[in-house]
Amino acid sequence: MTDPFEEIVFLARSKNRIRVLEALAGGPHTRRELESTVGASQPTLARILRDFEDRYWVEREGTQYRTTASGAFVAASFTDLLSNVKTEVRLRDVVRWLPMAHLDVAFERFDDARITRPTQTTPSGPLKRALELSARADRQLVVSYVLNHEMLETIYDATVDGSQSLRGVLSRGAVETLREDPASWRRFRELLAAENADLRLADGPVPFAVGVADETVYFFLRDESGLLRALLESTDDDVREWAVRTVEEYWNRGVDVDRSSFES
């Protein structure tokens, strides 16, 4: 019996084999068409097609080659594997800070994720990107255990001085941190009074910082010491549905802000 692992290795060891199988899975091709599509030499292409025919992954009809049912199955399975590994490789350096334990979303749904990390030339890149998303949104949803001065100012400008609608749930710790800075505290009290802004306090700990700016979901990814390591954003439908649902769940469990307690 053929070892399945050996078949995986056989296919994975050659990009040309993968490309030929993917091309044929998309429709019949002649050798000349495959040569142009794949970029392999004639001897290499002949050897690949012969190996595939031996495995009954492809068959020849006249001058054209096409995948068999098993060949199409292998091509689809390998394409999925490559896509999933590509997603994992892209997320590998930041996934430890992504709140996967709280995410009712399949890992592969983050295959479109954009990741902004600090660099030597732009150390504040993640925050800068978040501010861009926040500033230009018509509608924003937020659940967070932190709200720094820059984000507060951006939200203030977009809601109080602009037309953005905001629904947010903050941890009590985030609010108490704002109280420590007079400028932030003043802005926060003004934000509470804004017609476009609805804010509530979470009824317990908030384990992540997530926002929905129109169609884009963004996560602040911080390490154990609170250092901002990256901003991850996604426009995937499942990710957005989770984020919107999560905001509503926190909102429904949250408590209204007693504005009188914030006058000092």
In short:
With 264 residues, the protein is an alpha+beta fold. It has helices at residues 4-12, 15-25, 31-38, 42-54, 69-91, 125-136, 149-159, 172-179, 182-192, 237-253, and strands at 29-30, 58-61, 64-67, 114-116, 139-144, 165-170, 197-201, 210-213, 216-222, 228-234, 255-256. The protein has an 8-stranded mixed beta sheet, sandwiched between helices.
Descriptive overview:
It is a single chain. The protein has an 8-stranded mixed sheet with strand order 4-10-9-8-5-6-7-11, sandwiched between helices. A 3-stranded antiparallel sheet has the order 1-3-2. It has 10 helices and 11 strands. The longest helix has 23 residues, at 69-91. It has helices spanning 4-12, 15-25, 31-38, 42-54, 69-91, 125-136, 149-159, 172-179, 182-192, 237-253, and strands at residues 29-30, 58-61, 64-67, 114-116, 139-144, 165-170, 197-201, 210-213, 216-222, 228-234, 255-256. Strand 2 (58-61) and strand 3 (64-67) form a beta hairpin. The chain has 264 residues and is α+β, with helices and mostly antiparallel strands. It is elongated and about 80 Å long.
